[in-house]
Amino acid sequence: MDPREPRSLPIIPLLACLQVSLAVCACQPATNDESADGGMPAPEVSTAQVEAATVARTSDLPGRLTATRIAEVRAQVSGIIRERTFEEGAMVRKGDVLFRIDPAAYQAEVDAKAAALDRTMATRVQALRQSERTETLLERQAASTAQHDIATATLRQAEADVASAKAQLALARINLDYATVRAPISGRIGRALVTEGALVGQNDATHLAVIQQIDPIFADFKQSAADPAPIPEQSAGKTGTPVQLLRADGKPQGTEGRLLFSDVSVDPGTGQVSLRATFPNPAATLLPGTYVRVRVSRGADAAAALVPAQAIQRSSAGEAQAYVVEEGGKVALRPLRTGPLTEAGWIVEEGLRPGETVVVEGFQKIQPGGTVRPSPWGTGRSAEASPNP
Predict the structure, then answer these.
(1) What's residue 288's pLDDT?
(2) Mean pLDDT in residue range 254-270
(3) Which ranges carry the Multidrug resistance protein MdtA-like barrel-sandwich hybrid domain (predicted)?
């Protein structure tokens, strides 16, 4: 054979070795981490059991703060403002002097009415003595009955004049007192609407300032009449249902208040019922007109199905749902009807029972009908639940 010709390799021994290797691999058992269908390991997910717990039920409703009492300070007599005695924005007490109107004209009126009263009282004294004299003369038959009647009528007229003069003097003193404008209620006073030198009350009662009592303060809010979980009737002011104001981050603000009442009729335009709560406000940090959210207690559910907040998923239509781990590690996507979100988690009203297992983390690895390897979920990794908006 020519040494330059190419040497051919033996094919049959190579094929025999390949067949032996495939046979050996086929005889090896499949590992436990491989699934029967695709040969991929079942994904590991974090799960938690649905708990049965006593959970306080609440409802968060929008509303506005309003003052307990509002008084518009107005001038009851006309005149020139001579002095403003309060500091704008300060707290005032009932009876504190706020403005002083020039009292000269009203003081002169009081003096004139007092002099008129003195005159009528002098006339009454004279009429009284005349009546007594005619009565004595009538007993001695030295005066006629007609003279006695005239004297008696004159006395009564003089007494009426005295009463009228006293009333006019009292009215003049009232007008003089109105020249000193006082606070009708205790509370915080706003800015002065007039300044010294202004003419007030010439044609009407001039608006001078506004006082608002804000301790305690009211919160007015509304609830739909079709709410499936209405506020219990016995809580409307009878047992003092506790209520809380919420900050912008959803956490309670300040001290606890109580529900005063719910209206007795439904607004036909909105289908809502008005409610009012009262809150202590000693530091005057809550101001009227502020938009707030009010959390109203609705009692407690003694056997609520509670799941972690992360276990609830939302469909494209916004409906609540959760992955439930069934026997054999199979997962099923189950629709739910949820209640409010509490600090402990979501309350599930329909769709889950206490003791069932739900997936909390690892949703991106699973599909309905697939198999998973559940592992306990650490509650320390959960985000703090916030109130349902």
Answers:
(1) 92
(2) 82
(3) 69-212
So what's the pLDDT on residue 232?
52
pLDDT value of position 207? 93
Sorted by sequence, the CB contacts under 8 Å of residue 59 that are 6+ apart come out as 223, 227, 229, 231, 295, 296, 298, 340
Please report the pLDDT score of residue 269 as a whole number: 84
Pairing of strands 44-49, 373-376: parallel
From start to end of 50-192, where are the E strands? 51-74, 79-84, 91-92, 97-101, 180-182, 187-189
Residues facing residue 350 across a β-bridge: 337
Reported in sequence order, the residue ranges of the chain that DSSP labels E, i.e. its strands, are 44-49, 51-74, 79-84, 91-92, 97-101, 180-182, 187-189, 199-200, 207-224, 242-246, 252-262, 272-279, 291-307, 313-314, 320-325, 331-335, 337-342, 345-350, 357-361, 373-376
CA 231 – CA 243 distance, rounded (Å) = 11
Q: What pLDDT does residue 46 have?
A: 87
Least Cα distance to 190 among 289, 63, 276 occurs for 289
pLDDT of residue 305: 84
Domains along the sequence of the chain with CATH: 44-50+308-379 (2.40.420.20), 60-68+215-299 (2.40.30.170), 105-178 (1.10.287)
**Whole-number Å distance between alpha carbons of 98 and 196:** 12
In 3D space, the residue among 372, 268, 335, 297 whose CA is nearest the CA of residue 47 turns out to be 372
- Dist CA 314 CA 322 (whole Å): 8
